[in-house]
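Exercise 7. Predict the joint structure of the components listed below.
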Amino acid sequence: MASSRLVRTNLSPLFNWRPAHSASPVEALILRHRLRAIELLPWFLAICAYYAFADYLALGCQILIMILFAMSLDLVLGYAGIVTLGHSAFFGVGAYAAGIYAARVSGEPLSGLIIGAIAAAAIGWTSGLVILRTQGLTLLMLTLAITALLAEAANQASFITGGADGLQGVDMHPIFGIFNFDLYGRTAYIYCLVVLFVAWLFARRLIHSPFGQSLIGIRENAARMHAIGSPLRLRLVTIYTISAALAGVAGALLAQTTQFVGLTVLGFQRSGEIVIMLVFGGAGRLYGAFIGATLYMIAQDQLAKLDPTYWYFWIGLLLVLLVMFARGGVLGLIDQGLRALRSMR
Amino acid sequence: MTPALETIGLHKRFGALIVANDINFRLEHAARHALIGPNGAGKTTFINLITGRLAPSAGRILLNGYDITALPQAARVKCGLGRTFQINTLFRGLTVLQNVCLAVGEHAGIGGNMLRVFGSHRSVLEHAYHLLEQLHIADNALSLVRELPYGKQRLVEIAIALGLQPTVLLLDEPAAGVPSAETAIILDVIEQLPRDIAVLIIEHDMELVFRFARRITVLVQGAILVEGTPAEIAADARVREVYLGERQHA
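Solution:
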């Protein structure tokens, strides 16, 4: 019975992602999560960059960390549709937790990452339980408020965080006791790249799982998700916690690779910037984080050199143009281009 | 035999406004029942009370003899209560097949699974596709919902509800907004719904109601005015006065 259904052909509207070779809609959906060659491109480029830009590995490190941070944001903002301007809360908590752990307990990097993830997840879970009861503007304000609270707490607790002076004495041990963090950032770059790769594997699996698909359902139509019996609050708090943990890992990476934590990790500006990076690349597409963070960080680096006082203006202008003419960010533009090409054929 | 759905003294007021007034309603197993009434009679409110979108001020709701009054919306769905919406409430940016897969997956209890990809739940996908075939929208399985004509979107509404394998199905104006030329397609689908599902339909299209329903309840100002077979309702003077009379003015 199933096979007769599979043979059935169907109209293939122009705007379909469906690969041409698939036999049926069911097959198409089954194969949807398959890894495509293009998905390996970022990793290939990242490895090339290691050799090609050996003098810029510190910047490269920052980019990888921001990609991870933006990817964590994409899970809540792009996929689940939770509008937040307070994601730096989790980045900051992860950074402080890993930094303090390294300064006070042990400089072992991997356990530091785990500490950062757990601390951020704990904050994400508790705050999520409270604020995810709300929506829209209220939720946006609450995410801001949580970040402000944490930033002030970090400022006040200077006996442990170093307050406005920043956390000193973060001293990292070699990774696995072998790979020392060197002055050129080689170890740090590879370290960040490997962590990002693992996080990407996880995030990719997550968004293709029924859980991830249900998040998209919530984003698309929460009322209908209620009506099909989906436990929305549970799903939202879960993804918020997972995303917080990933953001915490990103923060921990920053603390470990720069061996310093300042109050700016919890700042509103960082929350805003990461949203801009994601929108820049394209939210809800997993790879938007890769493109957005990379372009933004490079643009920031170059523009700050060209125009040290007004470089933010150019970032702003770029963003306005993008939002006006390409709602899906850079990836959205690429999609449109491909569609146009396909329709010409 | 216990009815598929029963409300006992169901009451709902917003301040001084009474929108559901002591409604005692029975929906038998495998029923084909219509709920009609003029605009503002409280039909959609009644649906929202049953599905749990609204909490009643008083009264009880029984599903297959089981009291669901205190259950949240999601739990009622798990008990076999499915609904469609008067205004399309779909996942517009997803494909038709994905829309139905979400419902089927949620009913199968895999909605929270993070470790396996959706594609590995083959039976869920095939069940969803089978539903599309039954509703004659399989050809659109991979179209985005927002790109479908409105009539077909109405069918996706029904497909999602059927994906929950309900024992009681509430259809809130399934033909609303559909061009009259396409109403026949909707009616075909509704007439071919599995026999064992008890169906309650709210509809303004009298032709559709009288063709489909074997019992009709007339709701006026939040209260049941009369209930009976289509012939009885058509002959009822009060109904003519309240409902059909209003229709002639419209």
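Discussion. The interface with chain B takes residues 2, 5, 8, 10-13, 15-16, 18, 24-26, 28-33, 205-206, 208-214, 216-217, 220-221, 223-232, 234-235, 238 of chain A (CB under 8 Å).
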